[in-house]
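Per your request, structure below.
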């Protein structure tokens, strides 16, 4: 199949899938408003809503990829990150995961907000999946300069967890499409998408991880240039 035809097909499929997803999300919202639901029932509906929202974001990411990202938009990146955290807050709380944020002062940045939202979603959910109950997550954003190369001014975004960590021999593979450490529970596309979106921003991505008992965890650091 020619690349252009393949892109059109992907865009068409993503569009067709997204329409019923929106309808189901709206129906879940209406069901949550019913007074006859038990507290446990509301909890299950919230989890279902979150999972469908995640599918919707993946579909939109595929749609954006097929159509191209368009032009960057000046965006408050910490507001964007907070909006993703809010979507999954009930899931984190149900698992006893404590999440904290540290944001420095900065102006709006030119980014692709839709794809960047998917980056935050993937990294936060991967971190949560790697942690036992009562884990800790940190999301941080601050002005910084590039560690190497042109020393450009930009925004450094960090998502850190105290989960099980990633084995050293697997660190070189985690960004490859379809590679996953989650077995049948993962599709291996999340971190590949993260890498591609960061590259599209002209930025860089680093990961540090430890599996040492008592000191395990992972830190994903993203640098986005200001221009």
């Amino acid at each position: 199949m020619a690349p252009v035809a393949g892109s059109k097909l992907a865009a068409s499929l993503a569009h067709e899938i997204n329409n019923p997803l929106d309808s189901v999300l709206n129906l879940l919202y209406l069901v949550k408003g019913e007074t006859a639901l038990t507290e446990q029932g509301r909890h299950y509906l919230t989890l279902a809503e979150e999972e469908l929202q995640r599918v919707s974001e993946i579909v939109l990411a595929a749609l954006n990829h097929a159509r191209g990202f368009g032009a960057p938009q000046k965006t408050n990146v910490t507001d964007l990150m907070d909006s993703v955290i809010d979507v999954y807050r009930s899931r984190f709380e149900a698992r006893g995961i404590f999440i904290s944020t540290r944001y420095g002062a900065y102006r709006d940045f030119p980014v692709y907000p839709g794809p960047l939202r998917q980056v935050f979603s993937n990294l936060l959910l991967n971190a949560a999946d790697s942690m036992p109950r009562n884990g800790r997550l940190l999301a941080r954003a601050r002005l910084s300069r590039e560690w190497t190369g042109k020393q450009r001014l930009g925004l450094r975004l960090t998502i850190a967890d105290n989960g099980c960590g990633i084995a050293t021999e697997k660190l070189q593979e985690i960004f490859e499409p379809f590679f996953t450490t989650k077995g049948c529970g993962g599709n291996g596309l999340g971190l590949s998408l993260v890498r591609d979106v960061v590259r599209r921003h002209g930025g860089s991505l680093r990961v540090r991880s430890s599996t040492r008992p008592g000191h395990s965890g992972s830190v994903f650091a993203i640098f986005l240039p200001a221009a």
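The longest helix spans residues 3-32.

Regards,
D.
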